[in-house]
Write a structure and sequence with these properties.
Elements lengths: L5 H127 L5 E9 L7 E10 L2 E7 L5 H10 L3 H4 L1 H4 L3 E8 L4 H9 L3 E6 L2 E4 L11
Parallel strand pairs: 3-4, 4-5
Antiparallel strand pairs: 1-2, 2-3, 5-6
């Protein structure tokens, strides 16, 4: 047993109690702070949990969207395959039509050639004599000539006749249009370069020939100074008006 005086022991007890009370107060304060920190941590964890739930939902939506995108890409791939097949069919059909068009063009060219040979060719000399009062000393049908100084260029005459002071050139179309007349007129002056033997010392006269020539086409041709020939079976009929004088090019 302690032999210290009672007052001294009381002081020590009071000091111990004070220290205990202070420790309890400190512990209480720390526990309250810890509790507050835990509450904040709990709230943060709840927020994190909510964020993770939102992230999970977003990932699920992203997964669904990727699935839809994958389906769309598969559908696009199928459509591109169909488009490729259609383009192949279109190309094959275009090639077939092109071959048919080339064949038809060849047939039309041959038909026009026969037209020139069968009708225009035999009738040009007599028509020339009737129009100009002289015999043609040089005639030709489907006559092609390269340019004397530029062999890469060439011109073909459907029919021509030369005699006296006249060199007659005939453009033949199964169906003659105003633009055909204009193109023929535009090319007339250079014919002297391609056919110098026939054109030397002669006036160059142009004529257009076709079936079923409309009166408006006759008028258009006459404005350019051209003769107009209508084709009737094995004959050429001059369709120009009375007193018409062809232009010399």
């Amino acid at each position: 047993m302690s032999t210290a005086p009672l007052p001294q022991r009381m002081n020590r007890l009071e000091e111990a109690l004070a220290e205990l009370a202070l420790s309890q107060i400190q512990l209480h304060r720390e526990m309250r702070e810890f509790k507050d920190e835990m509450r904040v941590f709990k709230n943060e964890m709840l927020e994190f949990k909510d964020e993770m739930r939102e992230f999970k939902n977003e990932m699920r939506e992203f997964k669904n969207e990727m699935g839809e995108f994958k389906d769309e890409m598969r559908q696009f791939k199928d459509e591109m395959g169909e488009f490729k097949d259609e383009m192949r069919q279109f190309r094959d059909e275009s090639e077939r039509l092109s071959r048919n068009a080339d064949r038809r063009m060849g047939e039309l060219t041959n038909a026009l050639g026969r037209l020139v040979e069968d009708i225009v060719g035999p009738s040009v000399p007599s028509t020339f004599r009737s129009l100009f009062g002289v015999e043609a000393v040089d005639t030709g049908i489907r006559f092609e000539r390269r340019h004397p100084s530029d062999k890469g260029r060439s011109r073909e005459l459907d029919a021509f006749a030369a005699g006296g002071d006249t060199f007659l050139v005939v453009e033949v179309k199964s169906t003659m249009r105003p633009e055909d007349v204009a193109a023929f007129v535009a090319g007339m002056p250079e014919l002297r370069e391609y056919f110098p033997e026939q054109a030397a010392g002669r006036r160059l006269v142009g004529a257009v020939a076709s079936f079923h020539v409309h009166p408006s086409l006759v008028s258009a041709a006459e404005r350019h100074g051209l003769l107009v020939f209508g084709l009737e079976r094995n004959l050429i009929e001059v369709l120009n008006g009375p007193g018409f004088e062809p232009r010399a090019y």
